[in-house]
Amino acid sequence: MKKQTVETLGFNLFRLGSVFVVLILGAILFDIFYKGIGAISWEFLTAEPRMGMTEGGIFPAIVGTLYITLITALFSVPLGMFAAIYLNEYARQGKITRIIRLSIRNLSGVPSIVYGLFGVALFVRVLHLGTSILSAGLTLGLLTLPWTITASEEALKTVPKSYRDGALALGATKWQAIRTNVLPYAIPGMLTGTILGLARAAGETAPILFTGVAFFLPFLPDSPLSQFMALPYHLYVLATQHHDVEKVMPLAYGTALVLIAFVVGLNLAAVIIRYHFRKKRG
Amino acid sequence: MAGEAKVWTEGLNFFYGASQALHDINIKIPPHKVTAFIGPSGCGKSTFLRCLNRMNETIVGTRIEGKVFIEGHDIYDRSVDVVDIRRRIGMVFQKSNPFPKSIFDNVAYGLRIGGLKDKNKLAEVVEKALIDAALWDEVRDRLQESAMGLSGGQQQRLCIARALAVEPEVLLMDEPASALDPIATQRIEELIHQLKEKYTIIIVTHNMQQAARVSDITAFFYLGRLIEVDDTERIFTRPKLKQTEDYITGRFG
Ligand SMILES: Nc1ncnc2c1ncn2[C@@H]1O[C@H](COP(=O)(O)OP(=O)(O)O)[C@@H](O)[C@H]1O
Ligand SMILES: [Mg+2]
């Protein structure tokens, strides 16, 4: 074969690959939108499920997902940022930091059901938080921590050394240099990565399964120690655990659509933050 | 070059890990003069400059031996606060490094981290520093604009203003004009000439004409050693050592 033929063939193969990926994604989104949009109404978004979940809405599941996402963020964002600042700015780079980084990378590959089991052992049992928003949020926090740390470290790495040196040469202490001349430029990147991690956590089912999510609750959670409903689990219940699958399938698709809208919304927020700060910095 | 010294070193050795970059440097730098460090690339000029404000400490795995004095006080003494040293001995980097903040905030940076909050006082010092750095007339109407929008030469003068704002006694400059065009370079050189009235200036340059133009004292470094130091005029007309003469006349390096 001629060199040029090989080039063209390769190029088209790669193009085919990416087109295929986009097509699959499009098909999924279209399917969910097409089958779910009919279920969406004001009542669906603001009412409790009724009549054995065959009617009514998914309000408690929306609220539950918001609550645990909030707990997840409160736990993993600061912790992840502190860890990243320590690793990137303070720790002496060597064998130990390499081992820590390797562990973090590996943690992000651990199946989410394992985090669920760990959450039961640590938060539900040992710390006596019971099956609750707190236990589930913290479990998801652990799950997102590797993402938060890695994203935050990447963000810190994009800040040039000359910003640090310039500050130090003007008599800044190390922390002053980091606080005033590194973090302001790293935080948008940190947030972007972190929000992507949160979006992933919001869609998880396994980690919340043993740590606090409820099959059905006729009322909203009234404290961080309450059980709660959540979108991904509600979806799972409707789609596979319900006795009248035919009847609730549209509701399942509606729930899926809301969940996807939530996740896409978070991703969009990440994109907007990045865009906004990039413009400001340029 | 008689008279008392502002900064001097005794038996200074410096190591990057196991490799020794500076060997037994002894030099006296007089106040209110411009001292130029010349020598071929890689001979240790920047390394030596960074020893004088302890910036080498930011590079991991480095080690220093010997002493550096400013007005009789060893800057590496345990009782000395490195923050104080860097405020007394300012630095301008080879590659201009304005922060992505406004022009005003760049110049005010050192004052603010030093705890100055008074708005009027800040504005006053910023203006004075910009005047001293010969930049005021060009930026007075756009102090709140980003420093990243300035030209290369303006950025470097901004970095000089930023260093001057904390009122250092000594100003270290590492090839401050190496990335600039001839006109911007000339402005920096004129500026250096004016600044020596108030400051003790040490400048690294790979450009011998520049050293001859701006400096009173010239120190020639080669392979991590200080070979010869003398009045600039004498170094360029009748150096004592053959090595210096060879370098000056362009026979190597
Ligand atoms: N950060 C560093 N780590 C290791 N070696 C370095 C570092 N900076 C400089 N060196 C080495 O030290 C020697 C002197 O370098 P430098 O002070 O930059 O020379 P100059 O400024 O005269 O060109 C060179 O051999 C250089 O490779
Ligand atoms: Mg150099």
Brief synopsis:
The complex is a heterodimer of chains A (282) and B (253). A two-stranded antiparallel ribbon of chain A has the order 1-2. Chain A has 282 residues and is mainly alpha-helical.
Commentary on this structure:
The complex is a heterodimer of chains A (about 280) and B (about 250). By secondary structure, chain A is mainly alpha-helical. Chain A has 2 domains: about 1-40; about 40-280, Orthogonal Bundle (MetI-like fold), CATH 1.10.3720.10. Chain A contains 12 helices and 2 strands; from the N terminus they run H-H-E-E-H-H-H-H-H-H-H-H-H-H. In chain A, strand 1 and strand 2 form a beta hairpin. In chain A, helix 7 crosses helix 8 and helix 9 (about 185-200) packs antiparallel against helix 12 (about 245-280). The relative contact order of chain A is 0.15. Chain B is an alpha/beta fold. Helices cover about 35% and strands about 25% of the residues of chain B. Chain B is globular, with a radius of gyration of 18 Å. Classes of the chains: A mainly alpha (about 280), B alpha/beta (about 250). The interface of A and B includes residues 166, 168 and 282 of A. Adenosine-5'-diphosphate (ADP) binds near residues 43 and 59 of chain B.
User: How many separate domains of chain B?
Assistant: 1
Write the H/E string of chain A, N to C.
HHEEHHHHHHHHHH
List the total number of helices of chain B. 10
How many strands appear in the DSSP assignment of chain B? 10
Query: Which residues of chain A form runs of ≥5 with pLDDT under 50?
Result: none
Strand elements of chain A, count: 2
Number of domains of chain A: 2
Radius of gyration of chain B: 18 Å
Distance between the termini of chain B: 27 Å
Instruction: Provide the CATH top-level class of chain B.
Output: Alpha Beta
Could you name the CATH homologous superfamily of chain B? P-loop containing nucleotide triphosphate hydrolases
Shape of chain B: globular
How is the main sheet of chain A built?
Answer: 2 strands, antiparallel
The overall pLDDT average of chain A reads 90
How would you classify the helix and strand content of chain B by structural class? Answer: alpha/beta
Biggest interface and residues each: A-B, 21 and 25 residues
Give the helix proportion of chain A (percent range). Answer: over 70%
CATH topology of the largest domain in chain A: MetI-like fold
Average pLDDT value of chain B?
93
> In sequence order, what are the helices and strands of chain B, one letter per element?
EEEHEEHEHHHHEHEHEEHH
